[in-house]
Structures are given as C-alpha cells and as structure tokens.
Amino acid sequence: MWRPAQKIKWKPMPGVWPTREQARRSRLFSPIALGPVELATRTWIPAMVPWRATEDGFVTQDNIDWYARFAQGRPGAIVLEATGIRDVPSGPLLRIGDDRFIPGLRSLVDAVRQASEGETRLFIQVIDFLSIRRRPEPGRYLRQHLRLTDRHRTALAMEGAGDDAVREALVALPDERLAEVLDARELEALRLGARERVTDTYLPQIRELPQVLPGLFAAAARRAREAGFDGVELHYAHAYTMASMLSALNTRSDGYGGTLEGRARLPLEVYRAVRQAVGSDYAVGCRFLSEECIAGGSSVEDGMHFGVEFARAGMDFLSLSRGGKFEDAKPPAIGWASYPYTGRSGYECMPHHISDERGPYGRNFDPARRIRQAIRAAGYSTPVVVVGGVHGFEQAENLLATEGADIVGLARASLADPDWFVKVREGHGEQVTVCVYSNYCEGLDEKHKEVTCNLWDHVDLDPGGVRMSKDGKRRLIPPPWRRGPVA
Ligand SMILES: Cc1cc2nc3c(=O)[nH]c(=O)nc-3n(C[C@H](O)[C@H](O)[C@H](O)COP(=O)(O)O)c2cc1C
Ligand code: SF4
Hints:
By secondary structure, the chain is an alpha/beta fold. It has 19 helices and twelve strands. β8 (about 285-290), α13 (about 300-315) and β9 form a beta-alpha-beta unit. α10 packs parallel to α12. Flavin mononucleotide binds near residues 46 and 441.
C-alpha cells in the first residue's frame, strides 16, 4: 500500500471515556431521524465486505453470524456490505440482482433484529461495478488477448507480417520498447489488467448505462424492502460505476458527463427510479466521496455541489467517504485484480497508523464539514454521516458538537470491537479494544480472504466451539464481551 513520505507512527488516541450518565446525555447516543427511519443513536457501522458469501452471491450462516455479532454491540445502524445489483457471477460477494436472493437476505435482517433486540437499523449498500480483469501473464496477453492492429505492425516495422510473427515479436520486446509500441489502454491491460471505464461509450454496455442502471437499482431497492431492510444506501463512492459517473474524469459527451450537472445526472436519475420503486416512506440515501484524491479528480467543491443536489432531490441521508480509486492503484501481482485501496487515494480512504503529520484520524472531517455546511446553507437538513479514523468518544462527540456531522461512522474501530457502542454507552469505555489502524483487515480484503481483526482472531481459540476461517487459523467472529464493573 502507498505510504506518505513522512513516516510518523501514530498511536490510537481514544481520549477520556464517558461515565454511563455522561454517555446518556451525549449527542452521540441521542436519536436522529433519517426520513421515515429513526436511529436510537447517532452511531453507524459503514459497509465492510467480510468475504463470507457463497461463490454465487448468497447469504451464508457465516454472514448471518457476522452481522448478528455486530448487532450485539447495538450501533444505531449497520450498513450491509456492498451488494451487487446485477444477476451476473461476481465471486463471493453478496448479490441482490434477483428475487432468489431475498430469503437469505431476510434471514440476515431477522438475525440483526434479534441480536440487537430490535434496536439497530439495517441498511444495505447496493452497488454496480464495471468489468475489471485480472493482471494477465504477459506472454498470454500478447499471444491471445491483445487485439492486433496495423499500428503495432508499423511500430515494429513488420508491415504485412502474419499475426503469429507479430505476436512473437511483441513477446520478445523489452519493457521499455513495449511501452512505445502499445497504447496506454493496452499497457494498462498488460500491467494492471483491462478495466472498463464509464467513458468507453464505443462499448454498447457502457453507452447504455443511463438506460439500464435506473431499472437495476430500482429493482434491487424493491427487493431490499421486501427482505425487510430499513433502507438502502446507493453506492456512489470509491472506484465503482456511479462514483465514476460523478468523477471529474467523466468526459462523456452524451449529457451524462463533462459538466457538474451532466456528471450528477445519472446518479439523480437512479435515485428517482429507486424512490419511485420503494415509495416515500422508505429510507434511501447514498454514499459518495468528499474528494476523489487523484490527479484531475473531483474536489471538495464538486462534493458540495453533489451534496446539495442529492439533498434537493430528497435523499434521506448522505454518507461521506474519500478516495479509494483505481486510477492510482498499485499494479497487482499476476493473476490478481487491481485493488483500489493501494494508492494515495486508497490511503486517504483507509489511512494506516504510519502516516504524515495530519495522521490517520479524521482526514475526512474538514472536507465533510464543508459539504455539510453547503447543504445547510442551501436550506436542507439532510443528515450527514462522516467516517475516517474515529475510535474515541470525545472525537465523535466533538465532531457532532461542532456541526461536522450528524451521525458518526466507525468502520475499522467497530471491526476491532463490535461492542464499542454498548461498552461506551454503559460507561465501560476502558474495556474497548481500540483499533490500532494496522490495516491487517484491509490486507485480507485485498486477498479476498475472510476479513477478521488480529486484535481478536487468535483470542480464546477453541476449535471445538469456534467457527474458524478456511485456513483454520483464525476465529471468524470476535469473542463475547465479558462485562466488568460500571464506571
Ligand atoms: C475490510 C473492509 C471492507 C470495506 N468494504 C467497504 C464496502 O463494501 N463499501 C464501502 O463503501 N466501504 C467499504 N470499506 C470502507 C469503510 O466503510 C470505511 O469508509 C473506511 O474503512 C474508513 O473508515 P474507518 O477509518 O472508520 O475505518 C471497507 C473497509 C474495510 C476495512
Ligand atoms: S486489523 Fe483490527 S486493529 Fe488493524 S486496522 Fe483492522 S480493525 Fe483495526
């Protein structure tokens, strides 16, 4: 993963934990309405893919146990991991592209209700992503996948030569010469794996995204409602289709790119289709980027514009993340797909404890605050969820008190300790297992392995009673909290 030039080692700074009485009077543990849904507290577990679905996208018992364990901690809301809206194979990622996925998702909803005694609200993050191929073995790419053209023949001075001869000549070329003979997209396909972009409008499936996606998102949202979720979060963040539509790099000339209005057009059309499908009494919001953090990417000012437009359209909540793009991702190993959290933008999304002087805690706060202010200045009260390195009560409370957010998201901090919420609320903050921002969990995500935290995955191992990961070495869910005395 990318690291800043400065290598300052940061330790977690959870600050002073509140007594039960202080927690009871806090903003963090006060209720808030998201349109038709009320959260008991302003705490939120953002979407995190744990790699526990079946190969064909169904919910497993491990998924159910995972979310039930998080629900025992009683956060105000959990957002279920990014779940695909298309009915196409996408590996062990959850899917909602057909009615056959509804029963499994419904069991998951039931498990969360039961484990939180009805307190935690459950949203589902719905996602569309474009095709991305694994990084090929170079000989194979040059011999089989590269589409040969006259450009290659001319560059090699092999006009009139047969395909096989040209391909073998390419295989024999040193890297620097290959970089001259192949164009930028061919080189990308060779060195990173071919990746579709929303600007590839010469491809019918890309040209037709504006016609196809509103219906797909709407059908997914209708299924989410049927499965019992409290609402849907449209995934407009990171490296995926809708974030790419919003991106400053979206130069589509068909009315769905170029200007800020053009870039926001499909996300707004998708929202309207979803709203029509689920009705006005169902919570619908989106997650988008406060900044893309890549060269030429969207700025905070762009985020301010989008935030106001989404609020104006009637979204019930807006959740702000940052970075996490393919554009600056590191080349993956051969046979692996590019991972959008390996470059600088990935670092901004999930900063590591070895950081620069700004540190890993709250890098998203200032941009998110400006976006929230723009939304308020435009006259909308849409709740804004902010994440990024939150692990202490004072930090969260201060963010709310200074009007930096309406709801505070804890992703890795809740993975390190899903009981964070109940412990802090009950005056047991000193018993929280505090995330150290090692990104061990992110490394597992990158390798598509079951996500766990190394602060607990080797604790109280009892192979007789504990569900273990496929490699047999790690427990799959955190051990139960053994309560101590109240502060
Ligand atoms: C293992 C893992 C999986 C993640 N999966 C998703 C995802 O499915 N959708 C999403 O929007 N963000 C995802 N994220 C990003 C988190 O939601 C969050 O934005 C990020 O970790 C920063 O918050 P934090 O500093 O509280 O961890 C993931 C993060 C981790 C660590
Ligand atoms: S592995 Fe655990 S401690 Fe490390 S970043 Fe992930 S949640 Fe935090």
